């Protein structure tokens, strides 16, 4: 399909609108993860709607010493991929178009949730992110905006801003897209050398280890409810591969099988091993949090949670996460 490249909000506002407008916001350097967002936007907008992809490297999101200057800028390739994925428009404004008076004096503040995890590691990052998202929502005037779940804290904050400040737009989260080896797709992956990439696989490996432990625990929880007798319970636990737990049926009967601590421990083991690799993985944080406010959950927690990790490999900082649900069958 023909994709139109625009650089001003006036050009975008002049376009006739008949159906729903769906917007995918990016900083460029588009990859298959972005393509998935665009294809999802196309399905939501429908044949009569319009898909707009924004390409803007937002200077407010980069702190001192971060990679603003070397962040990849590949507009021609971005327009091509966006069009192949179903975009009608690529909106690529200059900094002066988004911030016509220079850096804005009035900004969106992310609040306490924006000071945790990514916010603690990158002070001011989420204030800059929310400010540009608010600006781009006003400039593009969408009915629906789509964001990747890989940036889970960002997605949670955007949803909170839209709700708290009464933005008239629907926010849709799209699951993380991974490469064949499990590494979450990111524009920063291109910075990794082959050796660094092997080390970086520990991020997804840790999350999958925690996810596997969680699945086993939830299976134990369900099986334990179904089998009241101690001997039968031990046999049932053994049947699903938990032979060590089954060896002490009394301990299993009195334990909390869905322990978040065990999930953290399983993920931490993978990360500790990666810290001894060459090159090493340097952990920033591993957290198991409530997605409503990104505070750590306790062992009595039930409901949706996010297991999140951030680390550096060489000079590249990467993040990843997986969603989990505790006590799903309760």
From TrEMBL:
Xref: SUPFAM superfamilies: Nucleotidylyl transferase
EC number: 6.3.2.1
HAMAP family listed in its UniProt record: PanC
Protein name listed in UniProt: Pantothenate synthetase
Keyword ATP-binding on entry: yes
Subunit and partners: Homodimer.
Record: residues binding beta-alanine: 61
Additional free-text comment from the UniProt record: The reaction proceeds by a bi uni uni bi ping pong mechanism.
Function (record text): Catalyzes the condensation of pantoate with beta-alanine in an ATP-dependent reaction via a pantoyl-adenylate intermediate.
Compartments it resides in: Cytoplasm
A Pfam family that the UniProt record links to this protein: Pantoate_ligase
Reactions catalysed, as given in the entry: (R)-pantoate + beta-alanine + ATP = (R)-pantothenate + AMP + diphosphate + H(+)
Binding site for ATP: 27-34, 148-151, 177, 185-188
Domain of life the protein comes from: Bacteria
Keyword terms, alphabetized: ATP-binding, Cytoplasm, Ligase, Nucleotide-binding, Pantothenate biosynthesis
Family: Belongs to the pantothenate synthetase family.
Pathway as given in its UniProt record: Cofactor biosynthesis; (R)-pantothenate biosynthesis; (R)-pantothenate from (R)-pantoate and beta-alanine: step 1/1
Residues the entry annotates as binding (R)-pantoate: 61, 154
Active site: 34
Phylogenetic lineage: Bacteria, Bacillati, Actinomycetota, Actinomycetes, Kitasatosporales
Classification via CDD domains: PanC
GO molecular function, one term: ligase activity
């Amino acid at each position: 399909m023909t994709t139109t490249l625009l650089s001003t909000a006036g050009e975008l506002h002049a376009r006739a609108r008949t159906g729903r407008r769906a917007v995918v916001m990016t900083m460029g350097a588009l990859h298959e993860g972005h393509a998935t967002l665009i294809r999802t936007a196309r399905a939501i907008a429908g044949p009569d709607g319009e898909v707009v992809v924004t390409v803007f490297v937002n200077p407010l999101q980069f702190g001192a010493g971060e990679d603003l200057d070397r962040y990849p800028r590949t507009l021609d390739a971005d327009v091509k991929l966006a069009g192949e994925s179903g975009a009608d428009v690529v909106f690529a404004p200059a900094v002066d178009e988004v911030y016509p008076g220079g850096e804005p004096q009035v900004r969106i503040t992310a609040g306490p949730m924006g000071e945790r995890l990514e916010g603690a590691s990158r002070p001011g990052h989420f204030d800059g992110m929310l400010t540009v998202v608010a600006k781009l929502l006003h400039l593009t005037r969408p009915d629906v905006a789509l964001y990747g779940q890989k940036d889970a804290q960002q997605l949670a904050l955007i949803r909170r801003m839209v709700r708290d400040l009464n933005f008239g737009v629907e926010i849709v989260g799209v699951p993380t897209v991974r490469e064949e080896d499990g590494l979450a797709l990111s524009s920063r992956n291109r910075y990794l050398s082959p050796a660094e990439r092997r080390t970086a696989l520990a991020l997804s490996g840790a999350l999958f280890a925690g996810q596997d432990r969680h699945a086993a625990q939830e299976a134990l929880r369900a099986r334990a409810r179904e089998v009241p007798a101690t001997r039968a319970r031990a046999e049932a636990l053994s049947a699903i591969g938990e032979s060590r737990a089954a060896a002490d049926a009394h301990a299993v009967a009195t334990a909390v099988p869905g322990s978040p601590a065990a999930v953290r421990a399983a993920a931490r083991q993978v990360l500790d091993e990666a810290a001894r690799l060459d090159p090493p993985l340097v952990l920033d944080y591993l957290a198991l949090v409530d997605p409503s406010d990104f505070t750590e959950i306790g062992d009595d927690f039930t409901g949706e949670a996010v297991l999140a990790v951030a680390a550096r490999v060489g000079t590249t900082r990467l993040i990843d996460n997986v969603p989990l649900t505790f006590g799903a069958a309760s």
